């Protein structure tokens, strides 16, 4: 018998007569000021949150960027003429970039989370991982209250990255410190 | 209402004054209790050590003693927990449908003392007087198996003269755990030493709890450390009056 | 990892050694208190936390009840999305599959995402035997690996080490680490520098998965540092070893666990990074994706009526952090990669009882205080499973040479069979001493006094005074 068939047979024997309980998904939270809470909760992770309008976005973005090479994905909602558009840069080339600028798919207020689905404007996963600064543009209408509101807006067929603050660890005495392997600086430009 | 006292094997043999305190207290509140002499032990020491077959004889004597009463009151959160949550397991294992049916009657009618006072008699001021500085240890099975919540401290708060002080890390286990104290003696001692230290930190004269097994453990460590803190069962504090 | 749990002594023996290590006791007390407080704060923020726990338990129970159907669907979806699905009955088969994938690509070095299951199967040692080096990339795993140590916690395998000890390990084993201070940020920076080149050049990664969504074929890894993202994104080949109990039926179900896990685990509203992926994405990430579905005792646990609830576990470690026994003895005493209350049930359930006395000692490594059940995000009633496993241990030894304990229990059962017998025994034993003997007086009196025996039992008093009326 193959491993597959043997495991499935063992499962069937073990679960014979076991019935599945029903379950409903509990509601999420419903804060009054969803966008305000999002800004507050993102900042709680020691990320930088910059609120701006569509008109001031470009100026705030330029001011937020560090010195050095900036990489952007194809289809970014803001034009950055000096930036390098990713066309399959190698990990080493990405490592030489100081920052990356992307759009986002969803923002979750309750948890201070940004989700990327790596579509146009967000790029493949590596570009938001290797550069040390990630500047992420989130529009107010992309922000939802809680995790259950985010799920239907996300397509599981695409790779998703949920980001809640800069890279961090609690592995030394359970003390949270920011800055391990992912971007050590996360700047969120919250538009609207 | 027919009320029976389940005194528990530990109180019967080692702490008879606690059984007497329950009788005095309930009598003062107008409740006359029976002591069915067929009772022995709830069987928890066997069940918690893995000896289910050996728990059947004490369970039979439990049912013989208590089946038919409207309420079975016990000064032990742990033994009440055993009656409510473990007797079904032992009875089913015995394969005796009559025993299963009997424990389905006795289990829900078994009350830990503070539950009986607050939930059944609807009283929190039992007319007690105890002019001492007291700290309270909520025993694990009262707290987490029965969910007695703040009933014991409601009762203590209403005792005249009593000053109740918070116990640091009150909800942490004292390390008794029945045969755990023997099988894992070193770990148990480490736990009870910390519990005794927290008790000393409160500056209380008396440590109160609703289970004498836990009090025997913590009290044993306190006297060994010559801490000068007495341990008393909740029933004894609630039974105290100006006259006593 | 050079350490191994094979041949560990029984829990009480291992615990005694651990208790004597005062540095360890201090490290554990500090770390567990920190994480308990954090968890309590963020859990209190969620109004319907109890409802979420019930939902988490129900979803996992539903997944387990039809596990065969969900696994077949998962396999179907993964295959359709370009992944290869392999099945492994045990550790040996799983390790062989991983080694075979590496060898097929001529790879002799892999980077690893922190994963309990690859520790469970001893993957690093198995790969090493095939000439393949496995690099742990999670900070705590790195500390354990560089220190030739053993993991002692599910979430923070190096919880038993403090910052000064970690600095010493790094100084000894990392290039250019002579001037490190013991600031956690500096130590984390050293780990970043140490692993950077490995990540950028790695050709193959090995991961586990926190969840596998059957209806979509999606795998999920929940992490903090970004080492997971590095491993899941940069290499050409990705092998994920997934215990068959990791399945959740639908994408919506995942929502509940993303709300339960971070708050229970690191005490955060959300962990820094969660990655989800479904097979191969052209032009993004590994282009060869292999998923190994592992049994290794899980179907044995599934067949246990009381114990199967342990398979709901989402490896948050809240039960470890809240356990008074774990806090004092640490993880190594449990002799397994799964320590603490969940380990005390999971190891016997996966391995079976009555064979190895170390495994048989685990269900007794608890005072049954119930703190673990109270914090478990999927409501595993660990105390009830412990008690049930104890009866399985006792039953497995029935019929052999009776132990002192079993003789004592039989004696107690006879004494407790009637009130009259108990009354006689109380008198014969002059009260108290008999009870004390049953509890094992010497183990007791090492650190505690015994209560003085009263003049008469309650039973005798009641009879003599007619319940105090005469």
TrEMBL record, chain A:
Residues 93-191 form the LUD domain. Coiled coil: none annotated. InterPro entries: FTHF_cligase-like_sf, LUD_dom, NagB/RpiA_transferase-like. It comes from the Bacteria. Gene3D superfamilies: NagB/RpiA/CoA transferase-like (3.40.50.10420). It holds the Pfam family LUD_dom. PANTHER family: LACTATE UTILIZATION PROTEIN C. This is LUD domain-containing protein.
From TrEMBL, chain B:
InterPro entries: Cys_rich_dom (IPR004017). GO terms for cellular component: cytosol. Pfam families: CCG. Residues 3-80, 134-218 form the Cysteine-rich domain. This is (Fe-S)-binding protein. GO terms for molecular function: oxidoreductase activity.
TrEMBL record, chain C:
The keyword Metal-binding applies. InterPro entries: 4Fe4S_Fe-S-bd (IPR017896), 4Fe4S_Fe_S_CS (IPR017900), FTHF_cligase-like_sf (IPR024185), Helical_ferredxn (IPR009051), LUD_dom (IPR003741), LutB/LldF (IPR004452), NagB/RpiA_transferase-like (IPR037171). It comes from the Bacteria. One of its GO terms (molecular function) is 4 iron, 4 sulfur cluster binding. It holds the Pfam family Fer4_8. One of its GO terms (biological process) is lactate metabolic process. Residues 73-292 form the LUD domain. Gene3D superfamilies: Alpha-helical ferredoxin, NagB/RpiA/CoA transferase-like. This is Iron-sulfur cluster-binding protein. It comes from Nocardioides islandensis. The lineage of its organism: Bacteria, Bacillati, Actinomycetota, Actinomycetes, Propionibacteriales.
């Amino acid at each position: 018998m193959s491993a597959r068939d043997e495991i499935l047979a063992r499962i069937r024997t073990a679960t014979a007569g076991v019935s599945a309980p029903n379950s409903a998904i509990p509601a999420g939270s419903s804060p009054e000021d969803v966008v305000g809470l999002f800004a507050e909760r993102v900042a709680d992770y020691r990320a930088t949150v910059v609120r701006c309008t569509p008109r001031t976005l470009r100026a705030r973005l330029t001011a937020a960027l560090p010195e050095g090479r900036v990489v952007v994905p194809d289809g970014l909602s803001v034009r950055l003429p000096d930036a390098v558009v990713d066309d399959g840069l190698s990990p080493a080339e990405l490592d030489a970039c100081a920052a990356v600028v992307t759009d986002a798919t969803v923002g979750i207020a309750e948890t201070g989370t940004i989700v990327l689905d790596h579509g146009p404007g967000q790029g493949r996963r590596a570009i938001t991982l290797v550069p040390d600064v990630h500047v992420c543009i989130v529009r107010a209408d992309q922000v939802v209250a809680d995790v259950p509101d985010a799920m239907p807006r996300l397509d599981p067929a695409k790779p998703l990255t949920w980001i809640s603050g800069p890279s961090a660890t609690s592995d030394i005495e359970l003390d949270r410190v920011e800055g391990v392997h992912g971007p050590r600086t996360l700047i969120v430009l919250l538009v609207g | 209402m027919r009320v029976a006292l389940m005194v528990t094997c530990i109180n019967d043999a080692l702490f008879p004054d606690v059984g007497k305190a329950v009788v005095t207290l309930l009598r003062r509140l107008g409740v006359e209790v029976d002591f069915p002499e067929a009772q022995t032990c709830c069987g928890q020491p066997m069940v918690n050590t893995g000896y289910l077959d050996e728990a059947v004889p004490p369970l039979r004597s439990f049912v013989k003693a208590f089946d038919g009463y409207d309420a079975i009151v016990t000064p032990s959160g742990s033994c009440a927990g055993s009656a409510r949550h473990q007797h079904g397991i032992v009875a089913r294992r015995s394969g005796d449908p009559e025993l299963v049916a009997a424990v389905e009657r006795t289990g829900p009618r078994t009350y830990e003392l503070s539950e009986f006072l607050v939930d059944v008699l609807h009283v929190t001021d039992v007319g007690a007087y105890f002019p001492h500085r007291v700290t309270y240890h909520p025993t694990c099975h009262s707290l987490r198996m029965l969910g007695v919540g703040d009933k014991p401290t409601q009762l203590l708060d209403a005792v005249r003269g009593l000053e109740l002080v918070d116990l640091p890390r009150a909800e942490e286990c004292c390390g008794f755990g029945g045969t755990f104290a023997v099988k894992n003696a070193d770990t148990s001692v480490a736990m009870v030493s910390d519990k005794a230290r927290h008790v000393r930190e409160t500056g209380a004269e008396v440590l109160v709890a609703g289970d004498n097994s836990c009090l025997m453990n913590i009290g044993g460590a306190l006297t060994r450390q010559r801490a000068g803190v007495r341990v008393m069962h909740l029933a004894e504090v609630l039974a105290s009056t100006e006259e006593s | 990892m050079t350490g191994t749990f094979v041949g560990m002594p029984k829990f009480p023996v291992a615990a005694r050694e651990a208790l004597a290590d005062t540095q360890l006791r201090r490290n554990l007390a500090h770390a567990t208190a920190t994480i308990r407080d954090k968890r309590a704060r963020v859990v209190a923020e969620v109004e319907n936390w109890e409802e979420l726990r019930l939902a988490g338990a129900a979803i996992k129970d539903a997944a387990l009840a039809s596990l065969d159907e969900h696994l077949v669907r998962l396999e179907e979806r993964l295959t359709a999305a370009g992944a290869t699905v392999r099945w492994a009955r045990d550790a040996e088969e799983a390790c062989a599959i991983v080694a075979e994938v590496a060898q097929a690509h001529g790879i002799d070095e892999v980077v690893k995402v922190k994963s309990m299951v690859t520790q469970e199967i001893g993957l690093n040692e198995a790969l090493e035997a095939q000439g393949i080096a496995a690099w742990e990339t999670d900070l705590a795993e790195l500390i354990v690996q560089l220190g030739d140590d053993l993991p002692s916690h599910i979430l923070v395998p190096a919880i038993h080490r403090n910052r000064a000890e970690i600095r010493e390990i790094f100084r000894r084993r990392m290039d250019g680490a002579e001037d490190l201070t013991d600031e956690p940020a500096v130590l984390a920076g050293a780990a970043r520098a140490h692993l950077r080149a490995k990540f950028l050049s790695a050709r193959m990664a090995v991961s586990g998965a926190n969840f596998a969504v059957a209806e979509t074929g999606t795998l999920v890894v929940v992490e903090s540092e970004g080492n997971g993202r590095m491993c899941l994104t940069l290499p050409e080949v990705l092998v994920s070893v997934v215990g068959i109990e990791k399945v959740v039926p639908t994408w919506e179900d995942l929502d509940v666990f993303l709300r339960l896990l971070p708050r229970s685990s690191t005490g955060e509203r959300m962990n820094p990074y969660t990655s989800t992926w479904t097979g191969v994405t052209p032009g993004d990430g590994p282009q060869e994706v292999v998923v190994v579905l592992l049994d290794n005792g899980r179907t044995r646990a599934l067949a246990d009526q009381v114990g199967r609830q342990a398979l709901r576990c989402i490896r948050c470690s809240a039960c470890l952090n809240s356990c008074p026994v774990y806090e004092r003895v640490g993880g190594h005493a449990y002799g397994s990669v799964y320590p603490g209350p969940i380990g005390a049930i999971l190891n016997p359930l996966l391995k079976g009882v009555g064979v190895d006395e170390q495994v048989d000692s685990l269900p007794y490594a608890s005072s049954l205080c119930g703190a673990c059940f109270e914090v478990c995000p999927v409501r595993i009633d660990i105390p009830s499973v412990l008690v049930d496993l104890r009866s399985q241990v006792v039953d497995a030894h029935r019929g052999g040479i009776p132990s002192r304990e079993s003789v004592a229990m039989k004696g107690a059962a006879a004494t407790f069979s009637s009130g009259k017998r108990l009354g006689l025994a109380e008198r014969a034993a002059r009260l108290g001493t008999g009870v004390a003997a049953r509890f094992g007086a010497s183990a007791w009196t090492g650190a505690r006094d015994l209560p003085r025996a009263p003049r008469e039992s309650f039973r005798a008093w009641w009879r003599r005074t007619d319940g105090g009326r005469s």
